[in-house]
Give the backbone structure.
Amino acid sequence: MNAPTPHQHLAPVIAQREVPAALIAALQHRFGANCSTAQVIREQHGRDESAFTTVPPPAAVVFAESTQDVSDAIRLAAQYQVPVIPFGVGSSLEGHLLAVQGGISVDVSRMNKVLSINAEDLTVTVQPGVTRKQLNEEIKSTGLFFPIDPGADASIGGMSATRASGTNAVRYGTMRENVLALEVVTASGEVIRTGTRAKKSAAGYDLTRLMVGSEGTLGLMTEITLRIYPLPEAVSAAICSFPSIEAAVRTTIATIQMGVPIARVELLDANTIRMVNAYAKLGLNEAPMLLMEFHGSPAGVKEQAETLQELAAEFGGQSFEWATTPEERTRLWTARHNAYFAAIQSKPGCRAISTDTCVPISKLADCLLESIDEADATGLPYFLVGHVGDGNFHFGYLIDPNNPVECATAEELNHKLVTRALALGGTCTGEHGIGLHKMDFLRAETGEGAVDMMRTIKRALDPHNIMNPGKIFSL
Amino acid sequence: MNAPTPHQHLAPVIAQREVPAALIAALQHRFGANCSTAQVIREQHGRDESAFTTVPPPAAVVFAESTQDVSDAIRLAAQYQVPVIPFGVGSSLEGHLLAVQGGISVDVSRMNKVLSINAEDLTVTVQPGVTRKQLNEEIKSTGLFFPIDPGADASIGGMSATRASGTNAVRYGTMRENVLALEVVTASGEVIRTGTRAKKSAAGYDLTRLMVGSEGTLGLMTEITLRIYPLPEAVSAAICSFPSIEAAVRTTIATIQMGVPIARVELLDANTIRMVNAYAKLGLNEAPMLLMEFHGSPAGVKEQAETLQELAAEFGGQSFEWATTPEERTRLWTARHNAYFAAIQSKPGCRAISTDTCVPISKLADCLLESIDEADATGLPYFLVGHVGDGNFHFGYLIDPNNPVECATAEELNHKLVTRALALGGTCTGEHGIGLHKMDFLRAETGEGAVDMMRTIKRALDPHNIMNPGKIFSL
């Protein structure tokens, strides 16, 4: 493994390709008012939640309302060899939505129908613009739920494209495990289907898993079939404070190694709790904390909780606070959900540069503790939250985007953290994707050979390089 | 979806490509005694457990002992554009090992080392020739186990290449979920790595999942990192007889829909139990039967078992027989494990043509019951076993391979079954792969567009079509 080289992630490489007026005219003819070239619309679609400096926005935005719309938009773009950037709700953290090579944005937020709910098979098929909260609202009456919960109320299309996960992944897996089948519009505008509703299959290449996590570079997903789950009979949540981050992490490691089927186990450091308390007046103990949730039968949940209490006690955990009603649980989880916003508010005008390493669970303490020392030494404020049951955690370095020193400090911290995570057998991104930010890290992580294989696949499936070009790898 | 057309699976298309004497000489020079052209060795490597009639064997067999050996063998083959067929233990059921376009066999059975056991991360890295039983033997002392268990003591390489599963998949998933990372020798002989030991990742295209299930057509896996699991604290097994197959299946469907985390739930029909009783003198009740296994804490296992008993009672299940000691469990599971051999012995000289459909769980009863009626109407003997918790089941039609009427009858039954499964939203293969047998079914299942995408990927990654050509799709 080669060490990644630092790079200037706030200045992505821009190589704008021409968008001919004839294409814009053809799109306007086909889509009428659903094709916009208004500056404000274009600008909305040319940025995301990443910390990237401004890139010129896409030349036009097509609001697709059907698979046919998507297919027609891509066919027209293909005819002119113009880039197509899929857009869901704009919550990418890695610059996926930036028109670094120019082109048009295809916004699928109006494709927001839950197409079928197969409650007895625990599957649901949705359009890509359905958001995770909308989905859970729409299937609530069936007694089923969709567990994947990235921080934002992201679209299912975006979550699939970035192989997203969240707090429940430790028990329920990520989008990798939970997307069963797809309808995809390819780079030539053709509509194909991958997978079936069967729970398992050995039928040919796993195109579903190839598309999941391909960040819009191989096609645009227009239908997504997902696994859903029975709402657990019993749910119990708890928070527990620890004398140190190490103690909290060691408790987590022991939990996973024992095979306790915990549903969620999230870490917040003392400083993040201070921010959350200031933001939402929660009055939480300002010490490293684990937030946990247990799903199962009443007896199973009780048993898991007892095991956790014993483990936590061994590592000095104290003041377990339990919540069994939905209202109490919501109060506890508010701390976790507000962390990002609380942190952003703690430093007016700042943006957060979020790290996303994930390491084998036995390496979590090493990776995390050294990175905390490193961050503390710089004096740059940050928040720290972690899906620690998966070995995944996020520093959010709070930078003034106009302060080059702070930007460089954050970059350097991230660079050191990723280098450490890779050396420990981990990955540079657990759930946010590569986007513009982590291309060098991807090469360091997987080697040139694997990235070349990705490029070869991309070239074969998208010979004119029109699908979200310039993401994942340079091309 | 187009209906698949019947085909003559016992006569695969053979288009032998020339294997130049210069290649054989070069292999013999490089590999010495580890390259064999002996007729008996070649014949051993030119067949598998499928019912295919004889195809000319590979021209030579290279016994690889290292990644370097594999790389060198493939480089030489690539130089002469000669097919390479990876070989593990030869337990394919779908003709994966047949040299339908000629070429050489690369046998990796001597690459059988467990390279590292990371007990604290619940991962293990193995060479492809390690078999599943060997792996479990070698990790036994750690208190961990690898749950994927196809019928044969298959190699981990072969299991990865066919996306295998088995009786534990209902709880632990298939090779799709349990292969974390790979070292692969590509069609040009290059060695690449995919994935890391991190539990989740959003780092670029999911090459690991692309390779898993690619049946040796995209490269040869030389190292495989797997998830392993803590041996459950408590295990309990049971068998239960039912008045009808429908009652057994309905019990299974209700179990899955309630979210009971059952570890195994297998169906045997009355006739198969008769065969097993005759073979192993087990004295089991000759009625449709579910074999079940529960993993968890003692309380959790008890709770699951009670739920199952209640559900089974609702559907008329009777005479629950429990086994909590390993010896008793082995006795019960013997019935399941012996089904194939018992069936083969019941009709001297026969071969079994095994079906492998998998449907959404709610469709299982419909799919199975109609197919039973159809099979019974022909009078052809068969065994019937099923990983019913996944919606996957196998008929094994017992044919005299020299009797064209029986062969045609089996083919027709399989064809009708697959057509039915596809119409119900299922797949033609849950765990055996496409191989030579199911190419038409794959096209019917996923459509020409998706198969074309697979071909495009294959052409890009293997431009001379040397890696196990003629499998999955025609090319």
In short: The first helix of chain B runs from residue 21 to 31.
